[in-house]
Amino acid sequence: MVLLASGTPREHIGFALGTMQSAFISGMIVGPLIGGVLAHFSGCRANFLWTGICCLSGALIVVWFVRETFVPVENKNNYTDLKKNIRSVFRSSDLRALFLIMLMVQFSVHFVAPFLSLYVEYLDFTPEYLEIMTGLVFGITGITSTIASPMWGKKGDEIGFSKVLRISLAGILIFMLPQAFVTSAYQLLFLRAGLGIFISGSCSNHQCVRSTVNP
User: Fold this and answer.
1) Average pLDDT over residues 108-125
2) pLDDT value at position 188?
């Protein structure tokens, strides 16, 4: 994130960081879909091999293609001090609220992740396709999130990012709560797809933070 921010023109930082965050979240959620397909056809051991290859590829891309123009600057405000950074966040009521909202959204989304595979199995889905359905339940959220992200960005420019955030939080609640009462994996799949649409809206927090810090 820091490398991206340091190499991006100031007028495009919000867009760049928002795109980076969307890619980060989508990758985390779509990854299990690919892993589920691999586990079905190649076994779980193959996932570790391909994960290692992907990590190595990412490192090589950064080493070979990412260029950084580093010029040391005088740090008058000493922003490298962790305690001062934390104090500066919690002194602002807007930043405190955004910090808490982002923490709660990420916690709620990822809290259920370790149990989703057990939940799909509990719903008596066909055993021979359990890995694929589990991966799809994970991955559909990332797919719909990626598709909906541009729409939310445009909507934020039209009605304001605070309204987008409120709509997104309401949508997350509407699609998250019923997941506790589903009776089939397909119902769960539908709700997870809707959840991804509104999760992408909450990613506009980056723009909200930018407009709050730099009004």
Assistant:
1) 81
2) 92
Cβ neighbourhood burial of 93 (10 Å; 0-12, 13-18, 19+) = exposed
**106 CA to centre of own chain:** 8
Burial 186-207 (b: 16+ CB within 10 A, else e): eebbbbbbbbbbbbbbbbbbbb
What's the token pair of residue 79? 């922003």
Helix axes 93-111, 205-213, angle to 10 degrees: 170
User: CA triplet 148, 163, 155: central angle to 5 degrees?
Assistant: 40
pLDDT in tens, 61-95: 988 988 777 666 665 555 556 677 777 777 777 77
Query: Does the global pTM surpass 0.70?
Result: no
Query: What whole-number distance in Å separates Cα of residue 33 and Cα of residue 131?
Result: 9
Contact 130, 183 (CB under 8 A): no
CA-CA distance, 142 to 33, in Å (whole number)? 9
For 193, the token pair is 């797809």
